[in-house]
Amino acid sequence: MFKLLGNALKVSPVLLGLSLLVASGAYAAQATATQSTSEQTKTAATTPDIDTVSNESPVESSTSVSQAVPSGASTPLNLAANTLPEASQTPVEQLSVSQPTGSEISPIANPADTTLAQSTPATGVATPSSTSEVLEQINQYSHEGINSSQGQVTNVSQLSDVSPGDWAYEALRSLVERYGCIAGYPDGTFRGNRATTRYEFAAGLNACLQQVERLIAASVEGFVTREDLETLQRLVQEFEVELATLGTRVDDLEGRVAFLEDHQFSTTTKLNAEVVFLLSDAFGDEVAVPSGFAPSTDDLDVNTTFADRVRLNFDTSFTGRDRLRTRLQARNIQPLTERTGTVMTEFYTQGGDNDVILDELSYRGTLTDAFTFWLGTTGLDLDDVALAVIGTPSAPSDFGSLQPIYKLASGAGAGLTFGGDGPFRIDAAYIANEAADPSEGSGLFAGSYAALGQITFQATDFLQISGTYVHGYDVSPGGGDGSRYANAPFGGNPFSTNADGDPNVFDPDLPDFLSSRTSVNAYQIAANFQLGAINIGGWVGYSNAIDELNRGAGRVDVWNYAATLAFNDFGGEGNQLGFIFGMPPRNRTNNLTGRRDLDTSYHIEAYYRYQLNDNIAIIPGAFVLLNPEHNDANEDIYVGTLQTVFTF
After folding, report:
1. Where is region (Disordered) located (predicted)?
2. Which residues pair with residue 566 across a beta bridge?
3. What is d(CA 474, CA 457) in angstroms, rounded to the nearest whole number?
4. How many CA atoms lie within 13 A of 430 on its CB side?
């Protein structure tokens, strides 16, 4: 075949240009041809979160590419035949071009003139061994073409990467100015050094054949010579299989689209899901007790557990710029708190007994590129609205995966975001924990709530800095991640005696701290700096809490911080190796006697997210708590996890 092409280059500018199509033009021709097909498809709903299938058949049958020969024309020439009429020294003015058995692809010069025909390859025509491979390849051609192909080039000077000194310059100029079957890309380039396949070359050949046919049918005098036609005939025969297979590909694609239309779940709703399998265990000597208490005499006895969390998200779009999320969840990952004596050993996935519940019902609408709003009746979190600047989102522990300030509220409410992807982003949210409860001391405004305001600086791709303020009422100043004194600083003290009447001994069977109406003003500064594949970040958080139940008699200061380090694509694309070192929320000062953390706990964690493929990730991890409950009388506690995360 290459010898044939080499000889053909000596014959005519037409063939030289067709050879150039191997580099780029054929690819653009195929892409534009596919574009003419896809333009007939209407999308039921489009959104960044939702992919929907077409609702109309993308292909219409077209008439034969052979044109009627005008009256008085000389003997017509069939390029698919094996014989040619007697030699003539005068140019051929009329020509009927018959394609081999197969389908016709619209030429790139004018994709609106014809459409893709549905055809079956002739007997003996080879077809791809795998329908899915065929569809994947034709989809690849069509997508690139739709995004990158431009209209017919009318002058070779429009192609910025083609200069008069190029060896193929004259051939390109002839194809552009004489035959009109060359197209470039939106950036004004031809990309002549690109490799191509036989199918792509066949598409480009078909485009020029149809353009030649139209010019002949229009009786363009002096258009083509006999030698040109002989060369074109040999090319048609050489690529007969590929031309026919193109039609089969289109037929297969149309059948697949029709099947999806008949079996689609919804034209507006997309189902996506996450399944987590968690294998975990904890190790240590004794159960942790609050700061100031003598060490516990109870051994830390934790058995290895294997549990799960399943989330099904039904994401619906009505305008293409909005999302209604309905999430169903079931999980049975039990917290280790009762066995270890501290909430510092909790996982971010824990809770439940595998009952299916409505975990989230929220609506997000985008009015402009810079303005987005949220509404939710259940399961709306502060970090759904506000951008959490953290470099270790895959950490297994609750403390390492998300900053405590975003855990002050979860429920019903609303949120706004201004700025989008601009240099400054502003987030605001109001979420009530008991919005559906009409009783006294509850509801949307009278019960537990948190109001957030955050500004994020994101002027560069490698640096993000955020400042966050949250005012909350009847919430935990420690966000549920700290010590007992940090999470409930004004509660009663059930640790004066244990169940046997022994004084000053912690007993995990006794009730937890008494609740108290607490108002909280929480502040946080977080940053993440990306240097190549390395993320360096961290945060510092501070909460000032007031005992409103006793008219401000109690006041506390709660601090927390962490430093994070992550190596992205470590060992492969999509993987992440992460480390966290920090101090869980600690009650440093309290004017109530006996309810202050005297020592300091440290959280040290490491994990590795291995992306097995696009849908499965395996995350082994471990963390250790030094001086848990901010009590150096407690022995260290070690927690090991192995997660498998399925997403689809």
Report:
1. 32-78, 87-106
2. 535, 578
3. 31
4. 6
pLDDT tens-digit map of 584-613? 999 999 887 778 999 999 999 999 999 999
Lowest mean pLDDT among 173-187, 284-298, 341-355, 368-382: 173-187
Instruction: Give Cβ neighbours of residue 337 (< 8 Å, ≥ 6 apart).
Output: 343, 345, 346
Rounded distance, CA 587 to CA 591, Å? 11
Q: Where are the domains of the chain?
A: 2-263, 269-647
H-helix or E-strand spanning residue 169: helix 169-174
For 97-133, write each residue's pLDDT tens digit.
444 433 333 333 333 333 333 333 443 444 444 555 5
Residue 544 vs residues 447, 485, 489, 517: alpha-carbon distances, Å: 19, 13, 11, 14
Give per-residue pLDDT as tens, 146-172. 444 455 667 777 788 888 877 777 777
The CATH homologous superfamily of the domain defined by 269-647: Porin (2.40.160.10)
C-alpha–C-alpha distance, residues 248 and 111, integer Å: 20
Q: What is the DSSP annotation of 49-102?
A: TB---BSS-S------SPPPPPTT------TTSS--PPP-SSPB----PPPPSS
| Cβ atoms of residues 217 and 68 within 8 Å | yes
Both tokens assigned to 95: 């020509």
